[in-house]
Structures are given as C-alpha cells and as structure tokens.
Design brief:
The chain is an alpha/beta fold. About 45% of the residues lie in helices and about 20% in strands. The protein is built from 13 helices and 14 strands. The strands form 5 sheets. It has a 6-stranded parallel beta sheet with strand order 6-7-8-9-10-11. A two-stranded antiparallel sheet has the order 1-2. Strand 1 and strand 2 form a beta hairpin. Helix 2 runs antiparallel to helix 3, helix 7 packs parallel to helix 8 and helix 9 packs parallel to helix 11. The two termini are about 20 Å apart.
C-alpha cells in the first residue's frame, strides 16, 4: 500500500505499508478479515500462516484462544524450536483478528460487544505530521491542529539539531495549547536522552516515546527517573510479561501498545489490564497497516478504561485504502466506536486487486 509521501523516522525512510491479508472462511459462507504486517518478509509470514491455517481447519472460531495457543506451540515451541513470543505476535495477529471478525459476523455483534461492551463512544487520535524538513513537519502539524487534533506527535531521533528544530517549529505552528509528543524510536542512549529531554522541555513536550534501546528496561527506567517529561514504553512491551516487568520497575508513565506486537485482540487486552492494575494508561500504536488494523484497534480500544486520549492513526499516510466502508477519516481528531458486525468493515475489491498488482510489480522489480 503506497504512502502519499515518504515516511521519515529515526531508522530511515519508508514509502509504503506491506501487509498480508488474512481471510477465515466458515462452512456457512461467512468470511472473517484480518491482516499481518509483512515485514521483514511477506513470504515468511505467509508460510507461517499457512501452517496455522491448517490447524484451524474444521475448528470453531469460538475456540479462538485455544487455537492461538495451539498455533503458537506448533510454530514456535514444538520440535525444540524454543519460543518466540514477540515474532509470534506479528505472525498470528491477522489470523486472530479474522477469527474475532467472523465470530462477530456469526452473532451479528460488533467485536467490542463480544468483549464486554464499549466504555466510550469515540476514540481520540493524535495528528501525525510528516516531512523531510522541520518546516514541512511544522506545516502539516499546523493543518492537523486546525482540523481538531488536540495532540500532535512527531518523529525525532534524526539528529540533535534537526530534532530541536522540529520541536521548535511545531510548537510555534500549533500554539501553546496543543499537546506535543515525540518519538526517537530507541535512538538515544540514557546520557543523550537526559541531554535532549532537558532541551526539549523548553517546548512543553507532553510525552516522549521509547527514547532508549528496547532491549533494556533498566535504561528506560533510568531515563524516566530523571526526566522532566513523561516517558512511554513502546517496543519494550509486546507480551503480558513485558508489561508486568515495565510496571514493576516503574520504567514508564504510559505504554504504547499495538495489535501486531501483542498478537491480536485478546493478548492486547491482557497487557492493557496489567497496565490498568498499575495505574498506567495505554496508547494505541500503529505500524505499516491498512484500515483493517485501524478498525480492529478501534474495537479493542472501545473496551479499555485506561485508553489514552491521543492514539496513533496511520490511515492518513496511505495514498488509498483497501477498506471501502466505514469512512475512517478523522473528524476533529476522532473516530466513533464502530458498530459491526465483527470489525464492521467492507473491503474494496478494486483497491485490493490494485494493491496485489502493486506487490507483484515490487517483487519483480527487486528480483
């Protein structure tokens, strides 16, 4: 799925979202929809999904939790292959989403109703401006603030001077009342983070997401202990065990959490509930995805008492989407809770064919 413009972040430039579409077909003709992030290799993800799919044949989608356990065992624990709880989340998230979607369609209920019901009527998202230069980021931030986004989030970790220039121009563009958040994507050491956070505090930054290497809880805890700005964990938390450790070590003020990291809706909620018990809010995280993931995250976010009011929204990056309905464009930084059944989506067959054709051309071009 091509992006409207290049996506700049601390690790380089991304020009589109690669996803693997997952369909679950029932014997009475229902089709559940999900998607997996295709990085680093779409064929690898697809190969794992085919094995998981074989396990699901002839089983009820209402065995979702048991099926996911069996898939994890077969793919990542059996035959001495040890465990891979993080990678397994990326592999199985789309299948798990699709099972929830087909359960909702079978019962005529939105997924959030199957999870116990919504605790809110809408979800608030932050504006996520893009640009190669600080001025381009600031110009887009101004537009998003004017469109009603109360929280503006931008990427840093692109070099100290550029990072500070981005923060300065974005603050000037959106005014003093909008909340600013930034993400260095693990690119700062604790020493560098301490220096940058002191300088960034001049711009009244609301939160900084995962400034240090995600392999170390201790590094993030060290930064949070000294920081004048609230700190969020992101890539540090994929599993319930990760969430428990972060909460126990008091390493973060917030946890940014995604369906593709946790492995789908059920484990997402499990992690969110651990954070809730520790008094920590959850922020929806986005990756290289389509509106399918947006709707799934909307469904699970509807059920969380500790959901933040500035969540990540990635659809605006896409040149076009494969979701035909509902309309997923933000209205004043908000989306209503989707009412289903299932995830509540209809795919655009023409856009899907166009995306598949684009994938084939990309593969041929790259050999």
């Amino acid at each position: 799925m091509p992006y409207k413009k290049p996506y700049h972040w601390a690790k380089g430039i991304i020009r589109g979202a690669g996803v693997v579409l997952v369909e679950v077909h029932t014997d009475d003709g229902l089709v559940g929809i999900g998607e997996c992030v295709a990085t680093p290799s779409a064929p690898a993800i697809e190969a794992y999904l085919n094995v998981a799919g074989d396990i699901c044949i002839g089983r009820s989608p209402f065995e979702n939790t048991r099926l996911m356990g069996e898939c994890y065992h077969a793919l990542f624990q059996a035959l001495g292959t040890c465990s891979a709880p993080r990678y397994s989340g990326q592999v199985l998230a789309g299948l798990e989403m699709a099972l929830w979607d087909v359960m909702g369609k079978a019962t005529g209920r939105a997924v959030h109703e199957l999870l116990g019901g919504a605790v809110r009527d809408e979800i608030h998202y932050f504006g996520f401006p893009q640009g190669a230069t600080a001025q381009e980021v600031a110009d887009e931030a101004r537009e998003m603030a004017a469109a009603g986004c109360d929280v503006i989030y931008f990427k840093v970790g692109r070099g100290d001077a550029l990072d500070l220039e981005i923060a300065r121009l974005v603050r000037a563009a959106v005014g003093p009342d909008k909340r600013l958040r930034m993400d260095p994507n693990e690119s700062w050491s604790p020493v560098r983070a301490a220096r940058m956070l002191r300088k960034m505090s001049e711009f009244d930054i609301d939160m900084v997401e995962q400034p240090t290497n995600a392999e170390s809880i201790a590094a993030l805890a060290q930064v949070r202990d000294r920081s004048p700005i609230a700190i969020a964990a992101d890539q540090l938390v994929f599993t319930p065990q990760d969430a428990y450790d972060v909460c126990r070590e008091k390493a973060a003020d917030m946890i940014t959490l995604g369906l593709h990291e946790t492995g789908g809706i059920a484990r997402f909620r499990k992690v969110a509930h651990i954070a809730e018990a520790a008094g920590i809010d959850i922020c929806l995280h986005g990756l290289y995805e389509t509106g399918i993931t947006t709707t799934a995250a909307n469904q699970v976010g509807a059920t969380l008492p500790n959901l933040d009011d500035g969540n990540q929204y990635m659809n605006h990056l896409l040149e076009w989407d494969i979701v035909k309905s509902p309309d997923l464009r933000l209205q004043e930084g908000r989306l209503p809770i989707l009412r289903g059944p299932g995830l509540g989506i209809e795919l655009d067959a023409d856009a899907l064919a166009r995306a598949a054709e684009g994938h084939i051309k990309e593969v041929e071009k790259n050999g």
